[in-house]
Amino acid sequence: MPPMAVARTLNDPIHGLIELNTLLFKFIDTPEFQRLRDLKQLGGMYYVFPGASHNRFEHCIGVAYLAGCWMRHLYKHSPVFRADYADVGEDEYERQVFLVELAGLCHDIGHGPFSHTFEDVFIEDESKWSHEIVSTQLVARINSGLKGEARLSDEELYLVQNMITGVKPDNAILHKYPRFLFQIVANKDTGIDVDKLDYLQRDCYSASLPMGFDAKRIIQFSTILRVDGHELHIAFHEKDAYNVFQMFHTRFSLHKQIYSHKAVKAVELMLGDIMKAADMTFGISKDLLNLDRYIMLSDSIIREIERSPATPPEAQALIQRIHRRDFYKLCGSAQVEKTNVADVKTLVASLKKHMESLKLPALVVKAKYDFGMPTNPLTKVRFFAYDQDGREVTASGVDRPDHQPETLNRGTTHAT
User: Fold this and answer.
1) What is the DSSP letter of 182?
2) Which of 216, 299, 200, 213 is nearest to 257 (CA)?
3) Which end of the chain is more exposed for a tag (fewer CB within 10 A), N or C?
């Protein structure tokens, strides 16, 4: 196995003592990345769960660390991987490890104030703006100011940007890179990636919720398999199927218990209404189109709005309500199957009509509880076992009904 590049040691509350390639600090020690110190990982949840105070900064560092760990594990324990890289020199291999780590490091630098809350309550058309796209733009921005070994070539930059989005383009530029490189940071195929492995642990730790799965075991029981004769995919030992499912179940539990808590949803809506009310004065929408101004936008926008004499009265009133914990009230909720789209639309229209008849201002919020996909997530995961000669044998998705709870497909609609 090629030796690890020169590293610096950090102490992380989740992963303990970790080592990071020194080149990563060329990206960390920039205004674009340091801004993450002022972006709460869980957005408005900090107003409800006092322990949910961690930021995107430490999450991104954790994802970079896990990305490197997984890449090295796969090289060491995957004969197919080593065979495919037989002609790759040590320097080139280490460079690819660095690029995977960099994709993990920068995957969330494009988030707006209060992280996902910003997109949920302020951005009206997510098809035109997303934090992933801004992340790819900010990576390019940082890279343009670097020199020497840390600076990425055009091809390397393009590779990192696509590892951030989790999509391998069907073009000649990235054709030579194996598919599994695009499954480590943001896995669009199975949903099992280092982003999820870090935030699930970090969020459970901060919210004092039990961890229902072993993240290290998921990495340790993985390998690379050649699928359909050519594509290299990440696969997991079949005996770890239940642990893999428990990872998805932990995600479900977090959505059910904290991410979609009624008080959390109320605060998030209020934060969105504050920013919308102050938008004309502070130009938040315009900042989205200007990276120079966008990197100055963080959770501190609420304090800026509060202390400005130009702030509209309605925005000031909402800020004071949050200080007094006078949140929007939950009027009612109903649970429907996610697959019944027509039922959801009918319910939303009915709730709005009812609240209007009572002459009460109301917002209808859809909260989704699932495992990241509409069916048993294990059906999308590739598992492997060893035959009697000790060779790895692949199997496509495994359907385990005994691992599939009745709540797999449910969502809740709240009227606030």
Assistant:
1) G
2) 200
3) N
DSSP 55: B
Give the DSSP letter string of 212-243.
Answer: -S-HHHHHHTEEEEEETTTEEEEEEEGGGHHH
Dihedrals phi, psi of 410, to nearest 5 degrees: -100, 155
Summarised one tens digit per residue, pLDDT across range 191-248 is: 999 999 999 999 999 988 888 899 999 999 999 998 877 789 999 999 999 999 999 9
What single string gives the DSSP state of each residue in 71-103?
HHHHHHH-HHHHHHTTT--HHHHHHHHHHHHHH
Q: pLDDT value at position 389?
A: 59
Task: Report CA-CA distances (Å) from 366 to 187, 192, 248, 410.
Answer: 25, 25, 20, 11
Task: Render the burial of 383-393: b for 16+ CB within 10 Å, e for the rest.
Answer: bbeeeeeeebe
Which amino acid, one-letter code, is at 14?
I
Report the 3 state secondary structure along 380-407.
HCCEEEECCCCCEEEECCCCCHHHCCHH
What global pTM score does this model have?
A: 0.89
Taken in order 50, 55, 58, 62, the sign of the CA dihedral is positive
The β-bridge partners of 413 are 334, 366
Pick the catalytic residue: 107, 131, 233, 249?
Answer: 131
Alpha helices per DSSP H over 191-336:
194-206, 215-220, 241-254, 262-277, 279-282, 284-287, 291-294, 301-307, 313-323
131 as an active site residue: the answer is yes
Q: What angle is formed at CA 254 by the lines to CA 249 and CA 258, rounded to 5 degrees?
A: 160
